[in-house]
Amino acid sequence: MPAAFAFFFFFWWVASYFLHTPILPFPWQAITQFYHDLLYNQLAIHLAISSYRLFTAIFIGAFLAIPIGLFLGASKTKDAWSAPVIYLFYVIPKIIFFPIFLILVGISDASKIALIAVVVFFQVLVMVRDAAREVDRRYVYSIQSLGNSSLQIFWHVFFLSSLPRIFTALKISLGSAIAVLFLTENFATDYGIGYYIMDGIARFNYAVVFSGILGMSLLGIFLFGLIDFLETRFCPWIFLAKTKES
Question: Which single residue of 26, 56, 198, 211 could bond 33 by disulfide (Cβ 3.0 to 4.6 Å)?
Fold first, then answer.
């Protein structure tokens, strides 16, 4: 990770040096601006509000998608019935629904959270359903023979078997969620990292623009690291297997 950061900032410095344009400030200019706005301007508030929107949307989307995906993937009949509906809505760009959310729930945070939650929902739903599909049915028959209930089978077989794929789905959906967060924060709001970046563009203050990009990148890195940490805690067998292979 430190080497990746060093390479990134070195490449940024080289590009800034040779292009020599105010549109691409040097890394230390953006970092200084970030530090200044975090302490003395409203960047901390922008970060907090964007974090709230992103955390809430991911939680709602995943909370709904995981059980539904497992439920559909566990049954061939339900999967076959639901597949056309899922494919139809999955391929539609969700950002086009943003005006509808604005009309239905207003210009508050609810419309932004709802759109991001829908994006996360469908990405997680498809991956979790596919993971449940691939569960070896012999495990189901084995645990049924021991007299376990349907709820126990759902938890111990389908959920735990799909848990690594659930974390993978969350990681993949995170990038889309942050992209949609940026787009939604360009409309009907005075707060959020997306607004902060676009305000910098409007004022031709490119140090502010890259300061906002740094802030949004740090938010994404933090969330990705959090999901990674939870994966190591709840799926330790994956990392034990990798250690043995190496």
Answer: 211
